[in-house]
Write a structure and sequence with these properties.
348 residues, 14 helices, 44% helix, disordered N terminus
């Protein structure tokens, strides 16, 4: 039983739980789901379903971008994206990583239902963008909440140095910071779109959301088109023909599966038990268990090969934002930086 504490520690993250389940043998079978052929140029497909850009989701998307960048067989990349944006730093990270990928190979982005704010910032890092006629595009700007005019006074038991040690800045400073970030975002759009942009800098700063048709007409997006159009454009920009397609989401998971299967192989018991058996036992030691994992085990058992189910489970766990109070004895609440590139929608 001495191995269980260590095993439990290993299983705390989404990036480990799913590969543990995959140790049942789906790695070999999953290879048949890819379109790759040895020696044939590939167009990598990255599918990002609707997600708010957070530190967690940006980490996952960044890993997909890195995989596509480092795989020499992938000559061009198509990203399918739907997002209202999200955290400022996380959105900036994805813009930088997308632009880094673009510097090595063409990147074409398909704007589906909504690509707004921080999602649109990420789009600025690509080589070419397609929108659907009904896509909603743009919303360039910043959302934040400044301190109240009369901030709460901490209790007498709290000692701090400097007038802004607790809040970081005055209300005026926070408003100025939001304006500074807005100007930087607008400048990114103006610089990246260049001569293609047919509205003024001031109009960009109004943070309007445009239909796909208007976005193309005004130079905020390049063309109206489908996924197939994006694939053909990516191949054209890369100068390749007779190419194959590779599912980057799947390939990255397979790579993780293989590595974790290798790491967890020593956990195989003499009685034939394996990592999934240990996982099933550990589920009873969690607060209320994990309904997603429990359902997976009930439906698939120890002979699991449900690749599609695993992929959905991976996404659910990757985008989890739950966290415990990191300092339960601290006398003040700890707030996360509340600056976002985010479209919040009507009725908020």
């Amino acid at each position: 039983m001495s191995v269980l504490p260590t095993f439990k520690k290993v299983l705390t993250g989404w990036y480990v739980v799913v590969p543990v389940l995959a140790a049942l043998g789906i790695v070999a079978g999953a290879l048949t789901f890819t379109h790759a052929s040895p020696g044939r140029p590939q167009v990598g497909i990255i599918d990002i379903p609707f997600t708010v850009i957070s530190e967690n989701s940006a980490l996952v998307i960044g890993e997909l971008l890195n995989y596509a960048r480092e795989d020499d067989s992938i000559k061009a990349v198509v990203i399918k994206l739907t997002t209202p944006g999200g955290g400022a730093a996380a959105s900036e990270h994805l813009y930088i990583e997308t632009r880094r990928l673009r510097e090595e190979k063409p990147v074409v982005l398909v704007m589906n239902g909504l690509v707004a704010s921080g999602g649109y910032m990420m789009a600025m890092g690509t080589s070419h963008t397609f929108a659907k006629p009904s896509s909603l595009v743009g919303n360039v700007g910043v959302v934040s909440s400044a301190d109240p005019l009369l901030p709460p006074v901490p209790g007498e038991d709290v000692v701090f140095s400097g007038p802004h040690k607790l809040d970081g800045a005055s209300r005026r400073d926070w408003i100025g910071m939001v304006d500074q970030l807005k100007e930087a975002f607008v400048q990114t759009v103006v610089s990246e779109r260049g001569d293609r942009l047919r509205i003024s800098r001031e109009e960009v700063a109004e943070a309007r959301l445009y239909s796909g048709i208007d976005a193309v007409r005004l130079g905020l997006a390049d063309e109206i088109g489908s996924n197939s159009d994006a694939i053909q454009k990516a191949a054209e920009l890369a100068g390749i023909s007779n190419f194959g397609l590779v599912d980057v989401n799947l390939e990255l998971q397979i790579e993780i599966f293989r590595e974790l299967a290798r790491i967890l192989e020593p956990l195989e018991g003499e009685d034939g038990s394996g990592p999934v058996d240990a996982l099933e036992l550990l589920l009873t030691d969690r607060d209320g268990g994990d309904p997603g994992l429990e359902t997976f085990l009930e439906e698939n058992g120890n002979g699991a090969s449900g690749l599609h189910t695993l992929r959905e489970l991976a996404l659910d766990r990757q985008l989890s934002t739950d966290q415990e109070d990191p300092l339960p004895e601290f006398p003040l609440g700890i707030g996360y930086p509340n600056i976002y590139y985010l479209y919040v929608g009507h009725g908020s």
